[in-house]
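ok so I'm stuck.
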Amino acid sequence: MHETGKRRPPPNVGLRWAIIGLVVAGSAAAFGYVGGWLAPDRLSPKKLVDVLQASGGEHPGYRRNHAKGICVGGRFESNGALQGDSRAALFAPGVSTPVIGRLALPGGNPYAADSSVPIRSFALRFDLADGEQWRTGMNAMPVFPVSTPKAFYDLQVATGPDPKTGKPDPAKAGAFFAGHPEAGPFLGWVKTAKPPASYATETYGSINAFYLRDAAGVRRAVRWKVVPETPAAGDGSPAAGDTDYLAADLVKRLAAGPLRWHLVMSFAADGDAVDDAALAWPDSRRSVDAGTLVIDSWQAQADGSCRDVNYDPTILPQGIEASGDPLLAARSAAYAESYLRRTREEGHLPGAARPKETRP
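replied:
not stuck anymore, here's the structure
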């Protein structure tokens, strides 16, 4: 005869609770590790963005790097020359792909003088017909100064404003570069760099390497750049006292007609560094002109179409793949952290340290 109303406890109750406890503890540990709570010395996206923010100053609602910029729009017209090297649909012959772009200055100060840095940047989002996207952030320099996210963080610390003086400490910067010989090519370029007084006449490169994968599954390492059709004019110097000449020049040029760049892919040879952006490839590498980037409109970044775009370089369509360069993953994570901060401030959401600045 069976008892009713009473149920036997399941076997191994203690073991079951122990397993549940391990799962909960493991999840908490994972969150703690990702958030940097368990390893405060570990480089996290928050620490990386914090140091950029400290260097450029606090400007709520703006990107923590490349804060000063202008939105542009247009299209990429493929000539089909790259179709044999990548199965990405935007490289098929005759395909026109809309783009939303942003031309900008490095640094976290949205009010910096255009002549304050020798580098300009060009970010693009290609919106493919099937819904895929290709996002890329390019810079007008031949190599990246360092090879790893940790070295980039240390570079920001070494060259950022000293809390005592509000200015960079040359001794700290010198000590950093003495310990990072990989920065030699970048420093050599900076000493002679003469950036043009126009976004339109600059060449912008991916710096990091990626892979193209063809229809047969073969992949090849590449770096890309966009090369302007518009030749540089004058001596590259802006008018005396003009601190905002880049956007004004761009608007004036677009009023006269579209601007064009050629998307050029350079292929690595055996022995070329694929996972190190501090090492350049020789100019003699095989290259393919994949088509023409046409920019025909602009908008202020405060309410333009690029405002809400996170130009994460790891968002790629089929046929383009990220390399093992550790800077790519760090850029993706830092961009996400910056995006969350500025959009939270933009929307005046709870948790935002300060709402967006009102200065245009």
